[in-house]
């Protein structure tokens, strides 16, 4: 029988950083630059400290991309160089004919993380690499960090997870399709739609709907992005592996809202809760990431804590940046 690789093992890492052509960012303008890195797009803040304390790489979630320029400003103001990556088939990396965010194996996205991390380390020699990841990006980067645990200088030196998607039950998909058939459906009918519904969370966040934020609604869709069987299977396989316990070698911060609630316009706390994931289930899985896992609970935070109202958003950014400063390694693994 052929060898079946561990679901947490990534592909062989890139050996060098490619030559890049940086151009003004097509979405955020001249305050940011972007460059194509393999099948992904790397974005960096033009403004940067003269002597950065570390480099921060942001990774988006499902139905998402990097648009949080206020996150970049907070990171730069705290003394760090800021980068973000739009993974393949998402955001700036979405190509004609692509199915948004679709993958049948999270290790495929690990290739994009390898490439982005290699470029950042090349451009920021001697600096620690802090990876800040949201939701499904938090699951992907956790698996990637575990897979790179024996490769000093390839994985992150610190890992910050903003409401990570660590448990399928958190998204309610098992109520739509029995988890026992996801493996078969994902293998035989990977494009089958298992769940589709509008995202009240995204709808409420949009400034034109009375929210706080402007974003491209073709890249972060208020109508949602269908969950297809192949993608759900990839997520389930990663989460099952996580449930057995990972060995992420670096310190990890898992941050969540203090409460969850329904993603419904009838929810009076729609702007004060995580309406996408169950924070208690995230907490239960967080301890299985590695030996050094800290928690940050934000009262009044929404699913993406960086998009919360001003008070909880400030609580998250200050708490997260304080944690990064306190845990930076004396000698980064570069």
Please, could you describe this protein's structure?
By secondary structure, the protein is an alpha/beta fold. The protein has a single domain (23-172, 241-327), classed as Alpha/Beta hydrolase fold, catalytic domain (Rossmann fold, 3-Layer(aba) Sandwich), CATH 3.40.50. It is built from eight helices and eleven strands. It has helices at 69-77, 106-123, 136-147, 179-188, 200-205, 229-243, 279-286, 310-327; strands at 23-25, 29-37, 40-45, 55-59, 81-86, 129-134, 158-162, 193-195, 227-228, 252-257, 293-298. The strands form two sheets. A nine-stranded mixed beta sheet has the order 1-2-3-5-4-6-7-10-11, sandwiched between helices. Strands 8-9 form a two-stranded antiparallel sheet. The protein starts with 22 loop residues before the first strand and ends in a 7-residue tail after the last helix.
Largest sheet: 9 strands, mixed
CA distance, first residue to last residue: 38 Å
Summed up, the helix count is 8
Shape from CA axes?
Answer: globular
Could you tell me the mean pLDDT? 91
The CATH architecture is 3-Layer(aba) Sandwich
Helix-strand pattern, N to C? EEEEHEHEHEHEHEHEHEH
Runs with pLDDT <50, length 5+? 1-7
In terms of quaternary structure, the protein is: single chain
Secondary structure: helix percent: 25-40%
Features:
334 residues; nine-stranded mixed sheet; globular; Rossmann fold; 29% helix; disordered N terminus; alpha/beta
What's this model, at a glance?
With 334 residues, the chain is an alpha/beta fold. It has helices at 69-77, 106-123, 136-147, 179-188, 200-205, 229-243, 279-286, 310-327, and strands at residues 23-25, 29-37, 40-45, 55-59, 81-86, 129-134, 158-162, 193-195, 227-228, 252-257, 293-298. Helix 3 crosses helix 6 (229-243) and helix 4 (179-188) crosses helix 6.
């Amino acid at each position: 029988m052929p060898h079946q690789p561990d679901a947490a093992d990534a592909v062989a890492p890139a050996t060098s950083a490619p030559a890049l052509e940086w151009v003004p960012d097509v979405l955020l303008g001249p305050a940011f630059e972007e460059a194509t890195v393999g099948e992904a797009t790397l974005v960096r803040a033009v403004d940067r400290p003269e002597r950065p304390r570390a480099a921060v790489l942001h990774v988006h979630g499902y139905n998402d991309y990097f648009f949080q320029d206020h996150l970049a400003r907070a990171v730069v103001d705290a003394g760090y160089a800021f980068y973000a990556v739009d993974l393949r088939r998402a955001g700036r990396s979405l190509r004609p004919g692509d199915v948004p965010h679709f993958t049948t194996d999270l290790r495929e996205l690990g290739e994009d993380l390898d490439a982005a991390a290699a470029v950042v380390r090349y451009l920021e020699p001697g600096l620690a690499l802090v990876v800040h990841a949201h939701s499904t990006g938090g699951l992907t980067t956790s698996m990637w960090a575990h897979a790179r645990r024996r490769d000093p200088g390839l994985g992150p030196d610190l890992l910050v997870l903003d409401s990570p998607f660590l448990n399928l039950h958190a998204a309610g998909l098992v109520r739509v399709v029995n988890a026992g058939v996801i493996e078969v459906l994902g293998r035989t009918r990977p494009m089958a739609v298992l769940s589709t519904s509008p995202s009240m969370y995204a709808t409420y966040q949009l400034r034109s709907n009375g929210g706080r934020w402007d974003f491209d609604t073709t890249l972060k869709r208020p109508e949602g992005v269908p969950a297809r069987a192949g993608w759900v299977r990839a997520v389930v396989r990663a989460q099952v592996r996580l449930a057995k316990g990972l060995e992420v070698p670096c310190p990890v911060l898992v941050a969540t809202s203090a409460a969850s609630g329904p993603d419904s316009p009838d929810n009076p706390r729609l702007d004060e809760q995580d309406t996408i994931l169950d924070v208690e289930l995230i907490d239960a899985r967080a301890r299985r990431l590695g030996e050094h896992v800290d928690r940050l609970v934000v009262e009044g935070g929404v699913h993406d804590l960086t998009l919360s109202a001003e008070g909880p958003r400030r609580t998250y950014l200050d708490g997260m940046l304080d944690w990064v400063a306190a845990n930076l390694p004396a000698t980064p693994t570069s």
